[in-house]
Design brief:
Layout (H helix, E strand, L loop, with lengths): L14 H16 L3 H8 L3 E10 L5 E10 L7 E8 L4 H17 L5 E8 L7 H14 L9 E5 L5 H15 L23 H17 L7 E5 L3 H12 L3 E7 L2 E4 L6 H9 L12 E3 L1 H4 L6 E4 L18 E3 L8 H10 L2 E3 L1 H4 L2 H15 L5 H26 L3 H20 L3
Parallel strand pairs: 3-4, 3-5, 6-7, 6-10, 10-11, 11-12
Antiparallel strand pairs: 1-2, 2-4, 7-8, 8-9
């Protein structure tokens, strides 16, 4: 399935500036040199391409596409391809840097990358989507490669688009190259557990942080903003652990039921209703902005960046925020949440389950061997739990937030690697 998420807040803050403010805070703790600071902040490569595509109407339309490789010091670039009307170079730069820190936090040998095309996949046919992803792939042939830069699904794309991407790349290379992309269909070398991996990481992070706060899963109430791949899987897996999901939202609006929403029913309804919850009768429809302000134990923003900002952070009532999306909390909101005593598990930790299982998929492709689902689940949950424990320990050591602690770990790892490798 494709990602279908709520539309962005129109006055959202600059995602690159938000990322850099967190980066700068961690750098102050670590005492990084000016030379290393420049290396860590300037992307290794930025590519902007024009993508001419013939639409079903016969019209030739040119889309603007991007690919940013932030760093390859830890390994090949790794990051999704986003199809969304609001994609911009500024956003892709921020997302690529987030991927660098995310891979470092969970100790995966990948660097950070991200790509995107400014388009509206909801208004495009399957044929138009295929022509666009194939054109994008041809434009990025010099960037992509299993040892160079490995794309994956993101908002607006899914396994179908990754299959087309792999096929186009393989045609150009004259051989089947499974490892050029992750998030593929199983039959094309995809991995068991990949579809739910990001949601699984959110679930593991939620339970780990709830344990630290003394919140029992069986008594916990949770609101999930975004009911696409990440949000629906996180909600479903947390429901399996005994949590009560009282609110969810997607592009059609937000839905609230104080007694709890049956997530399996909601997913079935969405899948049979053109991918949205429009008309869902098992819950009361509420304003999407109000979902963020509900008096719940846990709030999981799993849609887009900057939905919790300086304009609404003071009204947040959740005790715990677990970030399923990339950059859902702005830097200005961080300060407000900290003053309110609200703990936020940062995106570069909470949603790292996806890149963790992507790594497993890449390893399996390189080995030519498939692992069973139970092994993948066990290894994914262990990786996220280990990363959470490390972040928590560093937060106590430096008396900083979990977000700053995660950045400290990531930046220290990347900076130390640069020092060992040298060459600059």
């Amino acid at each position: 399935m494709q990602y279908l998420e709520p539309a962005p807040i129109k006055d959202r803050e600059n995602p690159l500036e938000s990322m850099m403010s967190r980066f700068d805070e961690a750098v102050q703790v670590l005492g990084i040199s000016d030379e290393l600071y420049q290396i860590l902040t300037i992307p290794a490569r930025q590519v902007i391409v024009g993508l001419p595509v013939t639409m079903d109407s016969g019209e030739l339309k040119v889309f603007e596409g991007y690919r940013v490789i932030h760093s390859t010091i830890l390994g090949p670039g790794k990051g999704g391809v986003r199809f969304d009307p609001d994609v911009s170079l500024n956003e892709v730069n921020a997302l690529a840097a987030w991927m660098t820190w995310k891979c470092a936090v969970v100790d995966i040998p990948f660097g950070g990358a991200k790509g995107g095309v400014a388009c509206n996949p909801r208004e495009m046919s399957a044929g138009e989507m295929e022509r666009l992803i194939r054109t994008y792939t041809k434009a990025m042939l010099e960037n992509f490669g299993p040892d160079k830069d490995i794309p994956a699904p993101d908002m607006g794309t899914g396994a179908r688009e990754m299959a087309w991407l792999m096929d186009e790349y393989s045609k150009a290379k004259g051989k089947t190259v499974h490892g050029v992309v992750t998030g593929k269909p199983l039959v094309l070398g995809g991995s068991q557990g990949r579809v739910e991996a990001t949601g699984r990481g959110v679930m593991v992070s939620t339970l780990a942080s709830m344990a630290k706060l003394g919140i029992s899963p069986e008594k916990a109430t949770i609101a999930v903003q975004g009911f696409g791949n990440v949000g629906s899987w996180a909600a479903s897996l947390l429901e399996d652990k005994g949590c009560k999901i009282v609110a969810v939202s997607d592009i059609s609006g937000a839905y609230y039921n104080e007694g709890g929403i049956d997530i399996k029913k909601a997913i079935d309804y969405r899948d049979q209703n053109k991918g949205t919850l429009e008309g869902f009768k098992e819950a009361e429809k509420i304003d999407p902005d109000d979902l963020l302000l509900l008096p719940v134990d846990v709030l999981i923003p799993a849609a887009k960046e900057d939905v919790i900002t300086g304009r609404n952070a003071a009204q947040i009532q959740a005790k715990l925020i677990v970030e399923g999306a990339n950059g859902p909390t702005s830097a200005k909101a961080d300060v407000i949440l900290k003053d309110k005593g609200i703990i936020a598990v940062p995106d570069i930790l909470a949603n790292a389950g996806g890149v963790t299982v992507s790594y497993f998929e890449w390893v399996q492709n390189r080995m030519g061997y498939k692992w069973p689902l139970d092994r993948i689940v066990r290894r994914c949950e262990k990786a996220i739990n280990n990363a959470f424990d490390h972040v928590y320990e560093v937060s106590l050591k430096y008396d900083v937030s979990l977000r700053t602690a995660a950045y400290i770990i990531a930046i220290d790892k990347v900076a130390t690697t640069y020092k060992f490798r040298g060459g600059y």
